[in-house]
Design goal:
The protein has 16 helices and 16 strands. It has 527 residues and is an alpha+beta fold.
Length: 527
Amino acid sequence: MQIPGLALEFSALPTPVPVWHAQVTFEQWQMAATAVRDQGGRLLALWAGSISPHGGASAAPASAWMCAAYVVLDGAFWLSLPLTQQDGRWVYPDLATVFPAATRMQRAAADLSGMVALGAHDTRAWLNHGAWPQDHFPLQQDPEKLPLLVAGELVNYPFVHVDGDGVHEIAVGPVHAGIIEPGHFRFSVVGEKVLRLEQRLGYTHKGTEYRMTQLAPLEAYRLAGRVSGDSTVAYAWAYCMALESATQTTLPLRAAWLRALMLERERIANHLGDLGALGNDAAFSFGLAQFSRLREDWLRASKTVFGHRLMMDCIVPGGVTSDIDLTQRELLLHQCDVVEQEARTLFNIYEAHAGLQDRFMTTGRVSPELAARLGLTGLAGRASSQSWDLRCDQPWVPYSDMAVAMATQHNGDVAARVAVRFDEIFESMRLIRRLLIEMPIGDLLCPVSLPLQPSRGAGWVEGWRGELFVALELGGAEQHHRILRCHLHDPSWQNWPVLEHAIMGNIVPDFPLINKSFNLSYSGQDL
């Protein structure tokens, strides 16, 4: 596998999905990004790699790496760039001019690891809200020695200012009226028309990636599954896939099918909740009541069968923790029939309701051209003609036997994102029935043996919100099999900036509706 125009030696990682790794030079870093963009590819993730000569962490590292992952039609490329110091700083070429979605990822890498993008236009702090000094970089610390955390200096965040006749600002958050995650939204408006929105996130930063380096590889799946609670199945699977890749572990067939069953149930649970909330934001409380009831029944069945409403900790390294018997299979099949019938009735009501369609159609539109330029991905991307879905593009077991039908729309507005949710519910119902009826017999777990030599692995899973990517670097026996670096990437990184564009030209009261139609994760991005 090659990137056109670059002489790189790629090594294939032993993952169920095609992922290749290569090391690049300073000059090749930007050339690779440009080549990927020119052939229609996109940026999947960007992060600061392992630090120190042997990949471990130290207070004064002698070497450092930047990493980027790109998606093309054939799979994903993971590129590692060894960094050099300039004026006492670790530096690398800016990628935001090629992929705008890289901007916030680069800012986060600077806050956490002290690695600076040369030529970057936006160098404001992203995750550091004054919780630590500007010259302190959490991921450069020894994971076995908790540093004494000293608060940094609180400064006024330099929001972009909009001038003009009648322009004023509305500040919303980070504390909101509902029980939701914190985020600050700064609107520049004339009357009620939004000229610009600027977000400030990072309020739910928990030091997740630093904490991963303190955990045993076979135990870290529990923290991965708590990165964003609404995607616990997807994150746990992505981490376990990365670990199984690094250890060259072959997953039992039945375990893979059970994982897919849980993933599709997670997808439906979130879509049901979102459709109800979207109806409520458009003053259609009947929709909220009905979809909330369906979602609650769905979660209760998951609790009955898997022992947890969200199926947390059900996916573990080497397999799954719980099986299903014939009685449970019939319970889930019956529930699919009931919920799908009611969802189709509600779909017809939503489609025929003039008030709803008036609020949904043309609201929060992201054109396919803008979506492609900004890297919009996942469910929101598919509503704007971005036809990417791992279950279709790079189907792994059991999706390789399922012929998943991708749900796409072209208008890119709230109505399109609602339509994609309905289509994905019905397709996931079909998949669940096949998974239940055709599930092979076999083991639920297999042993996972940590390698003697340092290794790397990747996990790439299509969650309900979009694709999750986990990059894992393990130490060998000499490093006590430690996690040297684990980057957990949420599709919200790409999609939050697009939300700023989706609200432009709309009115302020439509923001809750537009925001919910994306339903992005704060916790999954803030880490």
